[in-house]
Design goal:
153 residues, alpha+beta
Amino acid sequence: MEQKIKKHTLGKHEKLCSKLAIEELFQGGHRSMAAYPIRAVYMPAQTPGFRILVSVSKRHFKRAVLRNRVKRQIREAYRLNKSILEPMKVEGMNIAFLWLSNELFPTKVVTAKIQNLLQRIYEEHLIASTQSNAKLNLSSFLKEIPLNTPFLS
């Protein structure tokens, strides 16, 4: 019996490259949350799957070597923990990770923060989908009640 080993990859199709999608993500209809030193900005996408963007400002690190190190840490942390969002894969989501600090952090800290953000995004998605299902159930229930039926008098 061979067990299929799941590869932790981050391919081109998982990177957010479209200028239109990036503009849409930052202009409106998005949600965001922070786990210092990282902020995640996200919104549902029209296509299934997840696409990510990693940004580290020149304002925080003047040297490209340091910016690239931080981006590598974030991408690696996401790559190893993207399975947290796996149940939502059918719906799809665009996520931008923005670095907020002027300091470097150890990879373990960055990984823990990314795990925290992904878990919170997943939980918020569950709550939102539960609320929308409850609204649908309530509206269908109210449609079934005849208007001339007196309630408890």
